[in-house]
Every structure is written in C-alpha cells, then in structure tokens.
C-alpha cells in the first residue's frame, strides 16, 4: 500500500484558546463544554469532517485545539457562543 501524497493529506491548524471564568475550572469540564458548543454550532457530520481534537495541555486557563484548516471559521464562531461551563459563567476566546 502506497503512502498518501503530501498534497492529498489533510492540513491541520492549532488554535490556542483562553477560558475566562471567576471560578477555577478543570480540563474535563472545559473539554465537555467545547465539544457541546461545537456540536451545537456545526452538527455531528461537520464536526467529524473537521476532525476536532482538544489537547490535554491545560495551563493557566489556556488550551490547544487541533482542527482541519477548512473549518477554522466554524470553530471560532462556536467558541464565541459558549457562555457557561458546567453551569458556571465563563467565556472562551481564541488567543492564537
């Protein structure tokens, strides 16, 4: 079996996000809220095509999301609509 050519491979982007909240939040809570927000905004099929992976690099309320480069705008808009995490008021914004 031949390997996939570089021109046919999916290109990924990595987004650094920041969670602003008055209370301390755990990675599991934030991960669940991010997945629910993306699922609401994009749906199951688009979320599967976007190949979203939320990395376990949780320091100072910063984290990393890996996504297909064609779905960056959808991810940014879904992060915009997240207003609470596990019933606690919070906001998520992309940093870089």
Can you characterise this structure?
- The chain is an alpha+beta fold and 96 residues long.
- The chain has two helices and five strands, in the order βαββαββ.
- It has a five-stranded antiparallel sheet with strand order 2-3-1-5-4, with helices on one face.
- Strand 4 (84-85) and strand 5 (88-94) form a beta hairpin.
- The radius of gyration is 14 Å and the shape is elongated.
- The model has no long low-confidence stretch (mean pLDDT 92).
Major sheet attributes? 5 strands, antiparallel
Rg over C-alpha atoms, rounded to the nearest angstrom: 14 Å
Distance between the termini: 38 Å
User: How many helix segments?
Assistant: 2
Defining key terms:
alpha+beta, five-stranded antiparallel beta sheet, elongated, 29% strand, 2 helices, 96 residues
Secondary structure elements and pairings:
Blueprint: E1 12-21, H1 27-50, E2 53-54, E3 62-68, H2 72-80, E4 84-85, E5 88-94
Antiparallel strand pairs: 1-3, 1-5, 2-3, 4-5
Short description:
This protein is an alpha+beta fold and 96 residues long.
């Amino acid at each position: 079996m031949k390997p996939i050519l570089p021109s046919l491979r999916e290109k990924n982007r990595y987004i650094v996000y920041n969670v602003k909240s008055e209370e301390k939040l755990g990675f599991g809570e934030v991960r669940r809220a991010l997945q629910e927000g993306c699922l609401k905004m994009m749906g199951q099929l688009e979320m599967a095509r976007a190949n979203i992976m939320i990395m376990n690099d949780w320091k100072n309320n910063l984290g990393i999301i890996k996504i297909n480069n064609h779905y960056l705008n959808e991810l940014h808009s879904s992060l915009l609509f997240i207003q609470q995490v596990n019933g606690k008021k919070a906001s998520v914004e992309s940093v870089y």
